[in-house]
Design brief:
It is a single chain. The radius of gyration is 21 Å and the shape is globular. It has two domains: 227 residues, 3-Layer(aba) Sandwich (Rossmann fold), CATH 3.40.50.2300; 181 residues, Rossmann fold (3-Layer(aba) Sandwich). 35% of the residues lie in helices and 17% in strands. Strand 8, helix 9 and strand 9 form a beta-alpha-beta unit. It is an alpha/beta fold.
């Protein structure tokens, strides 16, 4: 059985002492079985003073480069909530097993968390892992809170989506790249990891480019974890691309940027614009290889506001002054607090009651700006920014949307006739869309 998360040694803060002190109570409660956590209006027995939640983030394997930071910021969020008195008078106790970047382990770990009584789970990075666990959450009728930007083309009543969907990230990015501010790019090369997110995003990209009278000059995919990008970089150079739109995920980015630098590809003339590279990933990438390239995200650590600086300072006090924060981490922090708001509004941890609390809409003042949970789609509004990588591993923000963008998981340019409104029954289906090579 996976043990509860144990805070690192080196001096416990008040938050960590609270979280650790509740672990013994949770262990005793598990012996009574998962039935202990059901059957009352709050979703928990009246005498219970802790509430279990799950964190399902890879701490090893190819996605650890990204997911470890997301796990840590959500631990920090839960510990902060505990320090403030918990939720409905209960301390939050979290379990954090390691699915090891293996899609086959995610549903196994998710099932165990829910059997242990987790009332909600915050987790997954890749869309492959999210889709693998969906049947488990549907079976248990619990909620997964998913913080990472993804491809859209999905809205499940058992998922709350905190990251950007293509109408909040990909479509405004294409408008910028093909416009004068982004250099009026016309020769885009699409490069991605070989799974559902890059394949679907690039399908949307092709449809949007076609609406502008354009088409990609090349497209290539590599397996997750692949480090050899020799063939892909040769193709980029041979087709005279003027921009690379990269949906490469995880530590494969180490190989990608090394190959680009070795081939002498200059970001001033052929920038890579990444959708999945942020501050945490840049800690592992040599500055000389990445400086000058671009990324599109809802949040960058370099946002110069007091709220953002205070948030980062709190995280670093707890987890180390060398730590950085990125887009999914900011979304993950917001999701924990939106869940807390929904539970308190419902007066219950019960999934049905929490989903009902979404109906009137929920908002949270996030470090990157205001976030609103759209009750129709169970997706969040997000900012849109483009950043240029600096040699210190941070971003100069070169473009920012004037206001958060409302979510649309089914952009009509790619999914005509599809829509979603969970306040009126759920998903409306349009014509079926086949995406070649989708895994």
């Amino acid at each position: 059985m996976d043990a509860p998360h144990t805070p690192s040694a080196g001096g416990l803060s008040r938050r960590r002492a609270v979280a650790r002190g509740s672990a013994a109570l949770l262990a005793a409660a598990r012996l009574l079985g998962p039935g202990l956590f059901a059957g009352c209006s709050s979703g928990l027995p009246p005498a219970r003073r802790t509430v279990p939640v799950g964190l399902l983030h890879s701490q090893t394997g190819t996605m650890a480069i990204s997911a470890t930071g997301l796990r840590d910021i959500q631990i920090h969020a839960l510990e902060t909530i505990n320090a403030g008195g918990g939720i409905l008078g209960r301390t939050v106790d979290f379990l954090a097993p390691d699915p090891r970047s293996r899609t086959d382990l995610f549903p196994v770990r998710a099932r165990r968390l829910l059997e242990q009584g987790a009332v909600a789970v915050f987790g997954c990075w890749t869309s492959a892992s999210r889709k693998a666990v969906l049947p488990v959450f549907e079976e248990f009728r619990r909620l997964l809170f998913y913080a990472v930007q993804y491809e859209g083309n999905e809205s499940d009543q058992h998922v709350v989506y905190g990251g950007s969907v293509p109408n909040q990230q990909i479509l405004p990015l294409l408008d910028w790249l093909t416009g004068p501010e982004g250099g009026a790019r016309r020769r885009l090369f699409l490069l991605g990891s070989d799974y559902v997110y890059p394949r679907t995003v690039n399908y949307i990209v092709r449809r949007q480019l076609a609406s502008k009278g354009l088409e990609p000059v090349g497209e290539a995919y590599v397996p997750l974890g692949e480090r050899d990008f020799t063939a892909a970089v040769t193709a980029i150079r041979d087709c005279r691309a003027d921009c690379v739109l990269s949906t490469v995920n995880g530590d494969s980015n180490l190989g990608l940027f090394a190959a680009l630098a070795a081939a002498g590809i200059d970001p001033a003339s052929v920038p890579v614009v990444s959708t999945s590279v942020g501050e945490d990933e840049l800690r592992s990438l040599p500055a000389a290889q990445v400086a000058g390239h671009l990324a599109a995200a809802g949040y960058f650590q370099s946002i110069a506001t007091p709220a953002n600086r205070n948030w980062l300072a709190g995280f670093r006090t707890e987890f180390g002054h060398d730590r950085v924060a990125g887009d999914a981490m900011e979304a993950g922090w917001c999701l924990v607090h939106l869940w807390k708001a929904a539970v308190e509004k419902a007066g219950s941890f019960d999934t049905t009651a929490v989903r009902q609390a979404f109906r009137d809409g929920l908002a949270f003042a996030g470090p990157g700006g205001p976030v609103r949970l759209d009750p129709r789609t169970q997706h969040c509004s997000r900012g849109f920014r483009i950043g240029r990588i600096r040699r210190d591993g941070q971003f100069d923000i070169v473009h920012a949307a004037p206001a958060p963008i409302d979510p649309d998981p089914y952009p009509q340019v790619a999914f005509p006739g599809w829509s979603c409104d969970w306040t009126r029954g759920g998903v409306t289906r349009g014509e079926e869309v086949k995406i070649d090579g989708q895994l």
